[in-house]
Amino acid sequence: MNTNPYKSLKSGSDIRGTAAEGVAGEAVELTDKAVFELTIGFCRWLEESRSIKSGRIAVGHDSRISAGRIKKQVISALSEFGFEISDCGYASTPAMFMTTVDLDCVASVQITASHHPFNKNGLKFFTREGGLNGSDIERIIDLAVLPFEKTERKPRVTAVDFMSIYAKRLRDMICEGVNAENYEKPLEGYRIVVDAGNGVGGFYATDVLAPLGADVTGSQFLEKDGMFPNHTPNPENKEAMASVCSATLRSRADLGIIFDTDVDRAGCVDENGREINRNRLVALAAIIALEGNEGGTIVTDSVTSTGLTDFINNTLGGVHYRFKRGYRNVINEQLRLQSEGVNCPLAIETSGHAAFRDNYYLDDGAYLVTKIIIKTAQMGKQGKKLDSLIARLKDPAEEKELRFKINTADFRAYGNGVIEKLEAYAEAAEDMRIADDNREGIRIYFDRPEEKGWLLLRLSVHDPIMPLNIESDVEGGVKLIAKRFYAFIKEMTKLDITPLVSFLES
């Protein structure tokens, strides 16, 4: 019987849960006791897996309302093990990793729950080797419940304005990359809108762009507010993207930028108010990553489009390598391929997580945006616009995502069984092709002229859910593919396919 109360707080490679009251039916899980003990578990894990028993650990947080309370417990627990603490205050998640580079910290802790609602929070851990994996979090949770005798040791804490150091690193990148005639003001004449969604990304407008001469007056929601009153701070959120698209058009800006709460993800908007997001963002990042890496491999998640594959492979001369959803998954596969001698300069999810090899394999939204801004200025010198780079990327005519709940306790086994049956179903069909690069779930191509598309059925990384993605190059194709899929999936009685039925009836 599982008696560890913290098992449910594992969220991929993070710890995450309800941390503040205010939502009916959601009791606080990240109590003071839980945060203290989980941080103790991290200290024990550092000693066990990395032989780290002393040194300095940096602690930072995003704008969430529970951050101050949680930070107090994190610092208390680290102090019990004798660590010195650099209190970085408001900080982005990527910056907290960079403390292990620039401040010589042995580890760091970021208090964040990414784009999740105001009442959520979590703990994200780094060592000098990078972020942790899911198995590391499982071990930390196991170590957290072992007996511990508290000594009330007085913390040794130093306040550090690390974001200023981090911002200078980004400014220096832009100055060097653009190499403008006015070297210190390479962004003069450019208007750039930043939407921080009331997270911690406002620094990018005030401390990176403005000092370099950019006009950022159209920027919005730069103020830190853990209630996120304007929109969800998430580049994948339609409302959020519509908001920054409008702001970019309204300001007649050359570029719009949107960050998630803790700035490990980003999206962009071109001067015409069109999103540079998902497949378009991957394509643009691939262009940048393949400069000097001809024939290099770009690792993406599994839901990327057929048009993107064609663009990377045939227009850019690279290799598109689809892998699993989950930013740690794509980064770990990048690391594995690189270790085997594959030239792999970029791993990127359609969600906006992008890890460049030349940035410690760290998913960093601000670093990605910095690369894009450099490219924008370089194109500007030639009298060209950024969007011209991805003009040959073919967008699908239609796309749809549906999610089916698995109504059984052993959901993973059931979901895998559904995928196996769908594979057999497709193999028996004359006009379905199974993709040769299935590394997550199953992707099937439909070649009829009226369909001309594909579907991908997979298991959610964490939840008892089976997401279905369908894409077509012709109008009406998605619904036709969905109808053919329904003929198979209707026999799977433990799947709630209500969303599919509703879509077909719409």
- Give helix % range: 25-40%
Shape: globular
Report strand %. Answer: 15-25%
Give the strand tally: 23
What would you report as the Rg, rounded to the nearest angstrom?
23 Å
**Which segments are poorly predicted (pLDDT under 50) over 5 or more consecutive residues?**
none
- Beginning-to-end CA distance, first to last residue: 46 Å
Mean pLDDT: 96
Q: How does the major sheet shape up?
A: 8 strands, mixed
Question: Would you tell me the structural class of the helices and strands?
Answer: alpha+beta
| Tally of contiguous helical segments | 14
What does this molecule look like?
With 506 residues, this protein is of the alpha+beta class. The chain is 36% helix and 20% strand. The protein has helices spanning 32-50, 67-80, 93-102, 134-144, 162-178, 203-209, 238-250, 279-289, 306-315, 327-339, 365-381, 411-428, 477-489, 498-505, and strands spanning 10-11, 14-18, 56-61, 84-90, 107-111, 120-127, 130-131, 157-159, 192-195, 255-259, 266-269, 275-276, 297-300, 319-322, 346-348, 354-356, 362-363, 398-406, 432-434, 442-446, 453-457, 465-472, 495-496. Strands 1, 2, 3, 4, 5, 6, 7 and 8 form an eight-stranded mixed β-sheet that branches. A six-stranded antiparallel β-sheet has the order 19-20-21-22-18-23. Helix 1 (32-50) packs across helix 2 (67-80). The chain is globular and about 70 Å long. The two termini are 46 Å apart. 51% of the residues are buried. The model has no long low-confidence stretch (mean pLDDT 96).
